[in-house]
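Possible race condition, two jobs.
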Amino acid sequence: MKINNHTGNFTRKTRIVMFCGKGGVGKTTCAAATAIHFADRGLNTLLLSSDPTPSLSDILEMDVSKAITKVKGVENLNAFELDYDTALEMWKQRFGDEVYEVISSFIPVGKEIIDYVAGAPGIDEEFLLSYILDIYESESYDVIVWDTAPAGGTLQLLKLQEKFYEHLGEAARLYLRVKGVLRKIRRKKGGNPLDIIEDWRKLCERTFNMLRNQNTEAIIVTIPEALGVYQTRRVINELRNVGIRISKVIVNYVLSEDLCECDFLKQRLKMQKTYLNLLNEEYSKNPGLIVLPLQPYEVKGVEAIRGIERLLFEK
């Protein structure tokens, strides 16, 4: 079973294809192959990486880390390897003053404290969802192929987003209870923090609508080893719990039996078969399993990536 083409109707909403999994399993390669597949079929495609240790520029053999960049040799394909320092700076520019307005309405703190909060771990990931949401809602692309951070980071991001959404309602209620007192202690006038909180709540709601939309899907990339199997189960359960549709599981780096002549490779093959059987039993029917053999060459450059594309997609 291979990835379905689904290159039909994109007139209403952008399709998002998320690639998730633990680090080092080939998510970026599979994401790049998928993006090239859609672009070759005439769909305006964005390949976006949010991995904190990215390899997209290396795989494409061109720098896509500064901005959305046209990929050489592929019509209809742009790519962006979002740098976390850039993401943090963009987050500060977009939300910094609003954060200060809301927090200073509760507690009279200096702006340097807010800047410190804005630099806290997880803030740059929070910006990332907003960045993708902007592109998604603009409908500038038919398809966004998203090479996500390794499994733990992606799941934590989704959990933080959900918690943030839940607590915004309580923040609004708290503000209403104490706003009379706050008027007396505030030293300057500004926007209404309640309006800003409501804007944030709406932003979270729009983000969840994007992730849970029928045009959004997650493809899990794994390897036939114990850690791969265990993490695949966890990732699938977590994504389903937040309402994200899983469309396929790709098992990468699978050894071919005819190549395993030495004892070392025979032992590796035996081990892989054990875990491949487990993955097959659990996911061959739902959501579907793709076995991707280990390649004899390094996957770098558009033509090498197209070799992976041919293995992933039905013709």
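Job #2 (started ~2 s after job #1):
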Amino acid sequence: MFDRLKKTFSLPNSLGSAEPTQSGHLLPDSPIFKWASSRGYSYIGGQGESFTMTGKIAEKAWKLECGPTSRDYISGNELRARAELEINEDIAVMVMNRSLKQVLEKRAYEMYTDTLQTVVEPNMPEEMRWLSTYPEVGWSGAPPQLWERYAIQAEERSHAIAWLTPALVDLLLSLPLKNSNGQLPFILMLLRGKAYLRTQYTSANLETLAHTALIFTAACESALGNLSLDIPV
């Protein structure tokens, strides 16, 4: 796992300034194009800093996109990923950085206590619903920094333990999640047989992109290897 991380981070930090061709693909001399190709990923550039990257893990398709955010708690561009893992659809685990959890919990409390609001906001992010649906879980043996930095919500604690292997936890803890405004929003989750990732992408930096992609693909590998369809819920 760490050999892969070292190899990934040995690439240039800059994404370069190559312009997309008319077909939407970045020019072959772009660092991000070279990096994606070296990992066996397909890459299509879009307008500005937007792009789409795709690949497969054990024949399961995944996609990572960069573009304008669809969540109001994320500023600027967003990295979002999704994989069709086809694991047990009843397994539900969410990893959220703790500062984001605090922000969403405060917002949910204000919404529910607002005397002028008689119905729940229909556009409430799904993550906010999770906070009230699934309890936060923990277990012994994990680094204390994990609980300081992240909150882990799950319907079944055993599923979280099986998914968040020591190698995946190390990748989560080594992800840079701070800028001048504090911690950046980050969510990694398993839901309805799929894996999802969502985080703020404030600077076009290849190291951050590579690390985020590595976390997501490692999370998919762990789910496929440790959370089979035979695991009870």
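The two ends are 29 Å apart (CA to CA).
Logs attached separately.
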